[in-house]
């Protein structure tokens, strides 16, 4: 769907797809071999078999979570708690909404406290009390819309964004890291002192300038590989806590530091 800056009004049934666009629905039971496997490509077969046998996929279905990624966020947050009731949180790359579900529960959004704003290129099913925008965060006006929706201040900025894969690993890697840099740039403009930045990265992909920026703006920076993140995947997460309030004279933009 296009429609920049719109609040998402996804139909029920949406939000059942992974970032790859494949449906998470209908995978019942463990160690099954799907029908028609012979007609599929080997890589596709591998993906389906892995889904069928993945305990986190099973847990996702059982608990009504919209994504397997939701479990990764829970694991990170259980180990290094940073969400508290009443917080104001931004989720960049929020579809299908698994992280929104976790954050919403942990900040007790349903009690009418705190604030939660998500944005994604794709439609996301509504989450009670959250504002969800549809748009591309690489377009400055979209980030302006997020800024406005959260009233210009957030206690946590999360990004699980991954660029659409091209099949060329170095390109995919660079694109996802570029999204991380935009997310960080946004975070330092909007975070309140003590705030948290959590973002998906690729192992070995956080170059020195990016790490220097994180260390400059935050008290503590950790690399985290939650158990639900597949070992064979280069995916990792950067958790930066204790956002340092900058001197008014200092430039907050990482691009200009
Ligand atoms: C791994 S998924 C996020 C899953 C989500 N955390 C959840 O638990 O449901 C990554 C998302 O990043 C989004 N994304 C990638 N590039 C984006 C961009 N430039 N602007 C907004 N969203 C983007 C994709 O559309 C995709 O839905």
Shape: globular
- Helical segment count: 7
Give the full name of the CATH homologous superfamily of the largest domain: Vaccinia Virus protein VP39
What CATH calls the topology of the largest domain is Rossmann fold
**Which molecules are bound besides the chains?**
S-adenosylmethionine
Determine the strand fraction and express it as a percent band. Answer: 15-25%
Helix % is 25-40%
In terms of topology, how is this protein built?
Layout: E1 6-7, E2 12-15, H1 42-53, H2 55-62, H3 69-79, E3 88-92, H4 98-106, E4 115-120, E5 131-134, H5 140-149, E6 154-159, H6 169-190, E7 191-202, H7 208-217, E8 218-224, E9 235-243
Parallel strand pairs: 3-4, 3-6, 4-5, 6-7
Antiparallel strand pairs: 1-5, 7-9, 8-9
The chain binds S-adenosylmethionine.
Residues 19, 66-67, 69-70, 93-99, 119-122, 136-138, 160-163, 179 line the site of S-adenosylmethionine.
Question: TL;DR of this structure?
Answer:
The protein has 257 residues and is of the alpha/beta class. The chain has seven helices and nine strands.
Task: Describe the 3D structure.
This protein has helices spanning 42-53, 55-62, 69-79, 98-106, 140-149, 169-190, 208-217; strands at 6-7, 12-15, 88-92, 115-120, 131-134, 154-159, 191-202, 218-224, 235-243. The protein has 257 residues and is an alpha/beta fold. The chain folds into 2 domains: 12-62, no CATH class; 67-256, Rossmann fold. The chain has an 8-stranded mixed sheet, sandwiched between helices. α3 (69-79) runs parallel beside α4. The longest helix is centred in the C-terminal third of the chain and has 22 residues, at 169-190. Bound molecules: S-adenosylmethionine (SAM). S-adenosylmethionine binds at residues 19, 66-67, 69-70, 93-99, 119-122, 136-138, 160-163, 179. S-adenosylmethionine binds next to α3, α4 and β4.
């Amino acid at each position: 769907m296009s429609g920049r800056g719109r609040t998402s009004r996804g139909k029920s049934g949406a939000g059942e797809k992974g970032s790859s666009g494949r449906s998470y629905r209908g995978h019942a039971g463990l160690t099954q071999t799907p029908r028609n496997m012979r007609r599929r490509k080997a890589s596709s077969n591998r993906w389906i078999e892995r889904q069928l046998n993945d305990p986190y996929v099973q847990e996702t279905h059982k608990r009504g979570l919209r994504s397997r990624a939701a479990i990764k966020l829970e694991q990170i947050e259980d180990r290094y708690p940073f969400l508290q009731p009443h917080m104001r949180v931004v989720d960049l790359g929020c579809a299908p909404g698994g992280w929104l579900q976790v954050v919403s529960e942990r900040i007790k959004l349903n009690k009418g406290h705190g604030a939660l704003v998500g944005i994604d290129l794709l439609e996301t099913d509504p989450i009670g009390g959250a504002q969800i925008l549809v748009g591309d965060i690489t377009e400055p006006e979209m980030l302006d819309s997020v800024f406005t929706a959260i009233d210009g201040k957030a206690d946590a900025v999360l990004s699980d964004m991954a660029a659409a894969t091209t099949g060329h690993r170095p390109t995919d890697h660079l694109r996802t890291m570029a999204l991380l840099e935009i997310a960080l740039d946004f975070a330092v403009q909007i975070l309140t002192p003590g705030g948290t930045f959590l973002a998906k990265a690729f192992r070995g992909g956080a170059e020195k300038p990016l790490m220097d920026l994180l260390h400059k703006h935050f008290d503590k920076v950790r690399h985290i590989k939650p158990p639900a993140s597949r070992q064979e995947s280069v995916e990792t997460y950067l958790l930066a806590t204790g956002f340092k309030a900058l001197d008014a004279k200092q430039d907050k933009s990482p691009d200009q530091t």
